[in-house]
Amino acid sequence: MKFIIIFLFSSVSLICAQEKQPNIILIIVDDLGYGELERQDDGRIPTPHIDSLARDGVKFTNAYVTGPYCSASRAAIMTGRYQNRFGYEKNPTGYWNEDPRIGVPNSEWTIAEQLQRSGYTTSLIGKWHLGATAKFHPMHQGFDEFFGFMHEGHYFVPEPYEGVTTLLRKKVLPGLVKGRWTSKDGKLIYHDILGDEPDYNTNNPIVRSSQPVDVKEYLTDAFTTEAIDFMKRTSDRPFFLTLSYNAVHSPLQGLDEYMDRFTHIEDIQRRIFAAMLANLDDNIGRVLNYLKSAKIEEDTLIYFLSDNGGPTKELTSSNGVLSGSKGMLREGGIRVPFIMRWNGTLPAGKVYHKPIISTDIFATSAAVSGVKVTHKAKRDGVNLIPYLTEKSQKEPHKVLYWKSVGQVALRSGDWKLLKSRSLKDRTKITPFMLFNLKDDIGETEDLSEKYPEKVQELLKIWQEIDKEMAPSLW
Description:
By secondary structure, the chain is of the alpha/beta class. The chain has helices spanning 2-18, 48-56, 70-79, 111-116, 219-233, 256-259, 268-293, 312-315, 331-334, 360-369, 385-388, 452-466, and strands spanning 23-29, 58-60, 63-64, 121-127, 145-149, 164-169, 180-182, 188-191, 207-208, 211-212, 239-244, 252-255, 300-306, 338-341, 350-352, 356-357, 399-404, 407-412, 415-419, 433-436. The strands form four sheets. It has a ten-stranded mixed sheet. A four-stranded mixed sheet has the order 7-8-6-12. β18 (407-412) and β19 (415-419) form a beta hairpin. The radius of gyration is 22 Å and the shape is globular.
């Protein structure tokens, strides 16, 4: 009997060791265009730490988010469901964030709630943008800790903007000049494109839990400092960290030391953007260096993605060969940089070309946690691990669906049905167009007249999926 007891104990220990839950880090960056990490010309901004994620992990060339704006996209990342299923179609900004109707409904089940119930300690650091009133607070949505802000954006350094060069949008420039206005010291620039810069900081403090804190560091640096502190404190248990940077979202503010790196860039707008992206990359390097020093690289699954495509005119954030930009259902609005790394489990240096979507993050994370999702709601993601380790040769998704404020899209294989904001006039919506993305990644040749039967076939599929969606909440 004594022998049997020892044997059973050893067997249980072996099972537990084999099924150890990995730490999970979800790095969401803001408004980083697909083209910034793909460029091969002299205009590429060096991102060695992000590049190292791809070198040591899996880079996706056909990765999508579910919406072309921050908030809708993040709602799907958090829930693993098309945000349209619960009516989250629009992008709240400014005081609309505090409308009591706006936020991910408490009836939804977030990735943080799933992992919390799976024994994980959970933290959100950075941008939330999924409802700013009390009932939508991250700590009511499955996060044990929160350090960040609730609205769509935040200044990286508050007024008087010390230690940075700042470029802001302004409808009317000082002295009624046109184009750009620059202060005497050259550290503050206004330009008259795209209206006024939003009042990001108004009623939108940096908080720990719910209490305002005074942050002295450049905000991207501060979020990384907080993230490393969280990982140190929870290194004795599985943790889930959502590191939700607001870089490289506006306002454009580049630290002096990073501006000095890019003196060869003549255009001040691009130079500030370069400073912001380089700083973001260095901060991701700080996270990776901590994992290495703590010897938990093989115990940690990392996701890296942008929440939508680049708003090129506003930031210079490039979408490369893709057409369109943030706010549009063209490829430039919804196809994003996406990388996964899990040393020792996922292959290093793999490039994966089949279409995947951000809802897969929920499904993959739930699967590796080892705890089944019990919340009874339809999920729109798949566990990516079998596809990346070649245990499955199938397509992760037969079709992908989008709907955003009058815009419609569906991808089926290489075909894409699209009704989007016009490239020439963003206030107008185009008729249905048809593209073959294998031959025409830039969506330059509309094939709808050549293949009208394909348009109807895809439209019928889209309509069947759309029947499952809810009306917009606001």
